[in-house]
Amino acid sequence: MKTCGLAVFSAVLLAGLAARGDVLDELMPRPRQVERGAKVASQAPAGPGAYRLQVKNGKLKIEGDAEGRRYAMATFRQLKKLAEAEGEEIPDCTIDDWPEFKYRGLMLDCGRNYQSVESIKDVIAMLAAYKFNVFHWHLTDNYGWRLESKKHPELQKKEAFSRNVGKFYTQAEFKEVLAFARKLGVTVIPELDMPGHTLAFRKATDIGSLADDKAKAILGELIDELCALAPAAEMPIIHLGTDEARERGEKVPQSHLDYWAQKVTDNGRILMGWSPGLKLPGQSIKQLWMGANDPRGDKTPYIDSQNSYYINHVDPEELLSVAAYQQPCRWGGKAEKLGAIIGVWHDDAIADTEDVVRMNAVYPAIVLLSDNFWRGREQDEPGLYARLPEPGDKCFMLAADLERRTLAQRDKVLKGLKHPFPYVAQTAMRWRLTDGEGRVIAENIPQATVYPRHFWFPKAAYINANDGVVKLETWIKSERTVECGAWIGMTGFSRSDGRSRDAPTPKLGEWNKHGATIELNGKAIPPPKWTHPGVGGNPKETPLVDEDYWYRAPTPIRLEKGVNHVVITLPKRGGWKWIGSFTPVLGTSDHPREVPGLSYSSRP
């Protein structure tokens, strides 16, 4: 049995059991210290973002700096909605709270896929509500230079775009987003990605190689123009990308990087770049984006976006294990650990501006990871990034508690949310995993999405092979006969070019290309009628429609009164992901709910 940090487990119990089931125990992120009653003798917490919130006889008192007072009000708004949902008053209480990390944010890639200003504002408002303070705005990529330039208007000519042609943000819209974010206490970090990901720039300027001195000068002017849109106090960090400079036209001498970096610092800004990436001299912040090892190579302060913080690679139900067990900033001293940023890289084309937040479960990710980014985790558990431990394990309590509070937020605080929130309870589920010979590999697996072998984290795997056949079984006891839906997934495409890695996509009549099947009470459940069946090669310009379970209509099923048997057979022959997922749901995939009256067992 896997053991978790006892201190972590104890902290959850002590924080939760004292007020189990009431509004003080349903906050996200969980405050550091919560006391019933409003009398305290100790000094209020100090430091950036720290606050004390006291409620006594319905009256509110807040202490803290400007940042802390904003966080206190976010907590109070949650308390108010949670109490109203129960028909109660906010109880007398004292909350002392402070963030573990300086920066807590989300990156939205609008270079590949333009997203409306209104949609971006909605995401920023959600971030602020859950105590995030950074919106990282990826504005340029191969598909388009999406920030208006008045110095170089050729960047917005239609011929320069290869997706969402002519769609970009005017300078007025850019300032509008900055002002909106600033009012909510969220700092915008704009990214002009260079020298990689610059096909749109090269097409617009008719410059074949960024090694050309003309390209060096124009990009320097664009940095100056960006910095002129807001004072340093309001836009203190400029991100220059620097990753994946792979093509011949993207190779530049170090002197070009030095020049662009100097432009940033000459404008009084902090320089930020990706790591791994090209060497930026005097770089103030590195943003880690790939790998399971420490890639810093020095003592540079850094922001963590590694592994499953790239939520375009995970499914919504997998977010729980990431939020419970991946520790932000796993290396270095406290001064180096600046925080974490969620990555939303939707490389594939989209059919609708809302599809990025739908298909990457942005809203559930913000709620679930708010606790992770605000408090951190006492210890990192890479073997659990995509695998919940058995229910008897102390570590399991962390995930169960996190899920309980997330569902309270979904149903009470976010009730009526117009944006998709594709997450339902899964920790009551129980699966048995067997190999092709019927030997039991694992039992009591308490999650909806099971990875026999995870594509990024072998430590999270149940088996090490990338080929073979496994079977997942669960027995569902229902209090009544019920017609409902089911989330069923056998592929789990990444929205970052995942179909190219797992081509061809399923043909009509298939759940996946490997021949996976699912049976309910001995009868096969047929797959959907795919919109784009059997697509091979590079389908990135064909928008995703129904390829994954959480953004298509749930599959209709009938659960009989009594015990129901579900069997998923999962062959695997190469490819990327090995995944089986099944969850009974009510409602739509954008706003699903649990089916009441169900219990699960991994044995008949």
Question: Could you give the distance between the termini?
Answer: 23 Å
Average pLDDT for all residues: 93
Major sheet: size, sense and barrel closure? 8 strands, parallel, barrel
Tell me what portion of residues adopts beta-strand conformation: 15-25%
Helix content: 10-25%
Radius of gyration of CA atoms, rounded to a whole number: 25 Å
Task: Please describe the topology of this protein.
Elements: H1 6-17, E1 33-36, E2 51-56, E3 59-64, H2 66-85, E4 93-97, E5 103-109, H3 117-129, E6 134-138, E7 140-141, E8 144-145, H4 171-183, E9 187-194, H5 199-205, H6 213-227, E10 237-241, H7 254-266, E11 270-275, E12 285-288, E13 302-304, H8 319-325, E14 337-344, H9 355-359, H10 362-375, H11 394-413, E15 431-435, E16 440-445, E17 449-453, E18 467-478, E19 482-489, H12 498-501, E20 517-520, E21 523-524, E22 555-559, E23 562-573, E24 578-587, E25 592-593, E26 598-601
Parallel strand pairs: 5-6, 5-14, 6-9, 9-10, 10-11, 11-12, 12-13, 13-14
Antiparallel strand pairs: 1-4, 2-3, 2-4, 7-8, 15-16, 15-18, 17-24, 18-23, 18-26, 19-22, 19-24, 20-21, 20-23, 24-25
